[in-house]
Amino acid sequence: VDTLGAWRGYRVAIRLAAGNDSVRGYVYAVDDDRRVSLIAQEKGATLVFMEQIVDIQVDKNEYVTIEELRKRLVPERSTASVEENREKLLRALREAKLPIEELSNGDVEVAGSVRVHSPYTVCDCESSVPAALARVTTVMRGGALGERTCT
């Protein structure tokens, strides 16, 4: 298997090389550079490395939007808590002198290559530029926005 990127949001059953292990869930995120995918399950998520995959079955009738999967994976937070995180994020990025743009949908774009979604923790960042993503998450951890384990 080269990538699961085309199946983001679809329910999959993946058989792994190690033993007779399998993973069932929805394809949530794919990192083609690191050749790893995050599969959202009923409780939490599992990282699957492409080299481990022996077989994959895709249920083309079972699709969930990425936003719905995010809601399943990320516990609800109070509006005050989310706003507090957003303010901490903006403060930390400004102190690090990183260029930021506050987008109309509430996301924060950093240096034109990293997006941070609500609730604005390191788990809510996405980018196709690994170096930029690493820089932003390092700044965020320094601003106390990385205390949560990403699931």
What are the salient characteristics of this protein?
single chain; 151 residues; alpha+beta; five-stranded antiparallel beta sheet; four-stranded antiparallel beta sheet; 3 helices; 25% helix
Layout of helices and strands, plus pairs?
Layout lengths: L9 E7 L5 E10 L4 E5 L4 E5 L3 E11 L2 H8 L5 H17 L4 E3 L5 E3 L3 E3 L8 E2 L3 H13 L9
Antiparallel strand pairs: 1-2, 1-5, 2-3, 3-4, 6-7, 7-8, 8-9
Helix pairs in contact: 2-3
Q: How does this structure look, described?
A:
The strands form two sheets. Strands 4-3-2-1-5 form a five-stranded antiparallel β-sheet, with helices on one face. It has helices at 66-73, 79-95, 130-142, and strands spanning 10-16, 22-31, 36-40, 45-49, 53-63, 100-102, 108-110, 114-116, 125-126. A hairpin with a 5-residue loop joins strand 1 and strand 2 (22-31). With 151 residues, it is of the alpha+beta class. The model has no long low-confidence stretch (mean pLDDT 83). The longest helix has 17 residues, at 79-95. 25% of the residues lie in helices and 32% in strands. The chain has three helices and nine strands.
